[in-house]
Design brief:
two-stranded antiparallel sheet; mainly alpha; 6 helices; elongated; 2 strands; single chain
């Protein structure tokens, strides 16, 4: 199974915001910290705001923060909300299926069970499950902050 970049970035944003509970975080800051496109992140943060996971404040000093407690953000739920579909193979979508062996193939059932197992495992975790690594994450992200904000690493943007 392969998650879309959108889901990957959603999980990264959630981790970043959970590690910074006492401040507003900007898309630019998250972009630098992960070395990923600001444009992509803007769409991700907007979707997360629509879901009620992220709260935004406009204007000077504005930014984003988690709108929910990390213990209330289920990883499986977040992935389900950010993936456009879970069609692992063509035959999962009857509207577009052109596989000639679909009526006789047993593989679809096995793949569906594997997908369910994957999501079941993700359901066992909340964002709070990963806060034990907060210090290590903060030290990695610190490297990518400009001199006036932090320790003074290189700005990859």
């Amino acid at each position: 199974m392969h998650l879309t970049q959108f889901s990957d970035y959603s999980l990264r944003v959630a981790l970043y915001l959970a590690a910074h509970p006492d401040k507003q975080v900007t898309v630019e800051e998250i972009s630098r910290s992960y070395r990923i496109s600001r444009n992509h992140l803007t769409k991700v943060v907007q979707r997360m705001a629509d879901l009620g996971v992220v709260a935004s404040t406009r204007g000077r000093g504005g930014g984003f923060r988690l709108a929910m407690d990390p213990a209330d953000i289920n990883v499986g739920w977040l992935v389900r909300q950010t993936e456009p579909h879970f069609d692992l193979v063509e035959c999962f979508d009857p509207a577009t299926n052109t596989c000639p062996i679909a009526p006789a193939c047993g593989l679809k059932g096995a793949l569906a069970r594997a997908q369910q197992a994957f999501l079941k495992v993700l359901n066992e975790y909340t964002l709070a499950s990963f806060q034990g690594q907060r210090r290590e994450l903060l030290s990695i992200w610190e490297v990518f902050r400009p001199d006036d904000e932090g320790a003074g690493g290189a700005d990859p943007g």
